[in-house]
Design goal:
Length: 304
């Protein structure tokens, strides 16, 4: 999948294959999205850029969602701290894993017990931004709280702290919403717009081929980006509680969780995919009479 994205011909073949695998579902999602987008037009998320910055207060219901997330976080944080390793060797082993600095806090039961989170994810002001960009009704695949903390060596970046593009499909949308104020020491989410990202990936892969490196490595070091002026294009989601970005992480290079000692970051994370992916399960019964929201949930609706 990742290799195919690097050329226009490869992307066309992947797109055609995705349609051929489930043509009825694809055209249904496209037809329903066309009607919905006429009712709720949005140009927030530009095709070339693949992102939209949403200032604090721009999405109705944000205040209530933030309060719900903070209540959930208080419970989850206490459990994490109680289970944290105290042995030095165990702590060092843990530091080699992604979960040492980044944790997904919510499970299916948490999401079902707090329906406000799914309501927010599918509310028209947010969901129309995504459907207008994607051109289809995507599936809601995840609603989560992402908790970032410092590593023992905060200047050594691993895993998703390095710039990368996500592997799900050719296009998707992810929302990152700050649950507390985020400044530079909190390790803000950082990304590069799609058009610049696509140029940088091609240039870096060419560099690697010429030097005998691993051209297909999907993580990109800051110095590789800097060699092509890429760091000048980065955008950082630093800002007050409730500020957010909607991003096509399949197209845009992004990184995050570069948290400095004594700080942390908490984001509400929402993912919408156009392809079948590993997902949470949702209570879709409330939306059986809403053709748009039900279509967004039906693939992963519990008991359906």
């Amino acid at each position: 999948m990742l290799r195919g994205r690097f050329t226009s011909a490869g992307r066309a073949l992947l797109h055609a294959g995705a349609i051929a695998s489930q043509p009825l579902d694809y055209y249904t999602r496209r037809r329903v999205a066309a009607r919905y987008n006429e009712q709720f037009p949005s140009d927030r998320m530009a095709e070339a850029d693949g992102y939209a910055i949403l200032p604090a207060g721009s999405l109705p219901g944000t205040t209530e969602v933030v309060e719900t997330c903070r209540q959930l976080f208080a419970v989850k944080k206490a459990a994490i701290e109680a289970a944290a390793p105290t042995d030095k060797k165990a702590l060092q082993r843990e530091q080699k894993k992604k979960r040492s600095f980044l944790r997904d806090l919510l499970d299916n039961e948490d999401v079902r017990a707090n329906p406000i989170l799914v309501d927010f994810a599918l509310a028209d002001p947010l969901f129309s931004t995504i459907t207008n960009y994607l051109g289809v009704v995507p599936s809601l695949t995840r609603v989560d709280l992402v908790y970032s903390v410092p590593r023992l060596n905060p200047d050594e970046h691993i895993a998703s702290q390095l710039f990368h593009q996500d592997p799900e499909g050719l296009r998707q949308a992810k929302v990152f919403l700050n649950i507390f104020d985020v400044e530079e020491p909190n390790g803000p989410f950082i990304f590069i717009p799609a058009s610049a990202s696509e140029r940088l990936v091609v240039a870096i892969r060419d560099d690697r081929r010429r030097s005998g490196g691993k051209a297909d490595d999907t993580r990109y070091r800051d110095e590789e980006l800097e060699a092509h002026g890429g760091l000048a294009d980065t955008i950082r989601l630093a800002g007050p509680t409730g500020s957010a970005v909607v991003l096509d992480t399949s197209r845009c290079l992004h990184a995050g969780s570069r948290v400095r000692p004594g700080h942390f970051r908490l984001c509400l994370f929402i993912q919408y995919c156009t392809t079948r992916e590993k997902a949470q399960t949702f209570d879709g019964r409330r939306f059986r009479n809403d053709p748009v929201k039900w279509l967004a949930l039906k693939r992963y609706a519990a008991g359906d």
